[in-house]
Design brief:
Elements: H1 4-19, H2 33-45, E1 59-62, H3 70-79, E2 85-89, H4 97-105, E3 114-116, H5 124-127, E4 138-140, H6 149-157, E5 164-166, H7 174-182, E6 186-188
Parallel strand pairs: 1-2, 2-3, 3-4, 4-5, 5-6
Helix pairs in contact: 2-3, 3-4
């Protein structure tokens, strides 16, 4: 049994240790501050710099021309607080179908309105992951040469709120463009009505 003076010393020591315990960045729920810091360090090496508060603030993931991997992307968006991820800018990255599937998987709790994935390794199969995304308003597939352009019409038909579709460097069938133009979707490059110049 401890003497009173030893107990007091012990409690003071433990109290001092608790005072110096670093708790910055900790919060409840599924957010893991240690995991987030490790991921942020890994992302910085890949050319993506996100703030400590990115996980809880509303905003987009901007990682164009970076070395972000599908695995990093999947972990990052899984840690984003629900209702806060509004878009992804991943043009000219190594994004593949796996990464796009992670984006599609969060559609029920993230209001993603912009998917900008130009010049990536996404295929037609991967595009199925984003079919029916009701929140999607902007889609950029420019330079996605692994996409079967005949399947683009199937995808676009499932996106009821699409307002802008960018498709530079890929040949989209004229009838698909005509349907989107009639829906008032802004097309880039622009589609002209048949017979007009």
């Amino acid at each position: 049994m401890l003497k009173t003076s030893e107990l007091v010393k012990f409690l003071i020591t433990v109290g001092l240790m608790l005072i110096h315990l670093p708790l910055s960045g900790c919060k409840g729920g599924g957010y893991d501050a240690v995991r987030a810091d490790a991921l942020r360090a890994e992302l910085r090496k890949a050319g993506v710099d996100i703030s400590e508060s990115w996980f809880e603030k509303e905003g987009m993931l901007i990682a164009e021309h970076s070395e972000i991997t599908d695995e990093m992307l999947c972990e990052l968006i899984s840690m984003k607080e629900p209702g806060k991820l509004t878009g992804v800018y991943l043009g000219s990255t190594n994004l593949s179908d796996k990464g796009l599937q992670c984006i599609g998987n969060v559609r029920d709790h993230q209001p993603i309105s912009r998917i900008m994935i130009s010049n990536t390794f996404v295929t037609s199969k991967g595009l199925r992951s984003i079919e029916g995304m009701a929140t999607l308003r902007w889609l950029d597939l420019s330079g996605c040469t692994r996409v079967d352009t005949k399947k683009i019409g199937d995808l676009l038909a499932t996106l009821p709120n699409l307002e802008n579709f960018l498709y530079f460097e890929i040949k989209v069938p004229r009838e698909v463009l005509q349907k989107q133009w009639e829906r008032d979707v802004r097309l880039s490059p622009p589609f002209t009505e048949p017979g007009s110049h």
